[in-house]
Structures are given as structure tokens and as C-alpha cells.
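**Sequence, C-alpha cells**
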Amino acid sequence: MNISAVLLAGGESRRMGKDKATLLFHGKPLWQIQLELLRKLARIEIFVSARTDPLWRPADLQFVADDPPSRGPLSGLGAVLARMHTKHLLALAIDMPFMTEKYLRFLCGQIEPGRGVLPKIDNRAEPLAAIYPQEAAAEIGAALSGADFSLQTLTNCLVAVGKLLVMPVAEQERKLFQNLNELTDLAAL
């Protein structure tokens, strides 16, 4: 598959109280679970986007610092789109351990030249498990230069200009997008 991937690990984990990337889930740290998933898909390059180079990053992964000042995942997307060598970028959040290879392959099968795929649950976009076309760099750059750093706003814009195809998430697939933000989220599982 000729696609780049980025593991988005730039959050501050304030609600979790510790680095989410190193949180154990079924005996493995979240970063390892997500990286193993991405390695099954991306054949060209995999990036790790964070504020600083994480100690856990394997040497064969490229680190891309969030463009300062950090604007959350928007900064990571902008920085990686500028460095990737493919036409599409699969973004995956570090804290979404229920995502599957099957679903990501399904999303990859929906991309077209100049257009990525955006899963949506009801009216809410799921921009941290989406595929962005290289052509989205202009809108991401404009968002980084502005005052609204919301990925919901950005993805609405990209849908409006035809750079993202909305993919409604089926009821049975909604759990794939569950993320772990607090220790109580983990305890509830």
C-alpha cells in the first residue's frame, strides 16, 4: 500500500495523569499496539508525531516534532504532510487501541487521488483515525496560521472542498474509535 502513516502521540495526557503512550493495555504499551497495527498497513514510511522525541520511539520510525507552538494534532498533521513522500497520510491516535487492521484497510480502499477519507459517527468527525491527501496541506497550513485549531472545523472545510470523503461509521464499528483519556476509561474495560 503506497501510503504514509503517522502515530499521533503529541498530547499532554493531562486527564490521564501519565503518558498515554506508555499505558499498558492487555499487557502492551499503547504505542506498541498502535505501531504494530500501522506496520501491517504502511509500506513506505511511518512517522511518530509528538512535542518531543519520545524515549519509546523505535529507531526505524521517523520522528516529526509538532510545529511550534504546538496546536495539538493539527501541528502534527501539518508537519508530517510536509515531510511525507506519498500522496496520502493515515493518521492514528496513540490512545485508540480498539482500532483494527480490517477497518483501516477498508478506509485505505476508499481513497482517491487528491481525496482522503474521514470516518464520522453521527455528526462528529473522527479525525484521529482518518486519511488525509497531500493536497490538504494548504488548508492545514491556513488553520495553523489562524485562531481556530479544531480538527472538527478543519475536516468540515476539507469535506466542503472535496478533499475528504465522509465515511459514516456503522453501529458495530463505533467501539473502534473509543479512546482512553482517563484511568477510569481503562478501569471500565
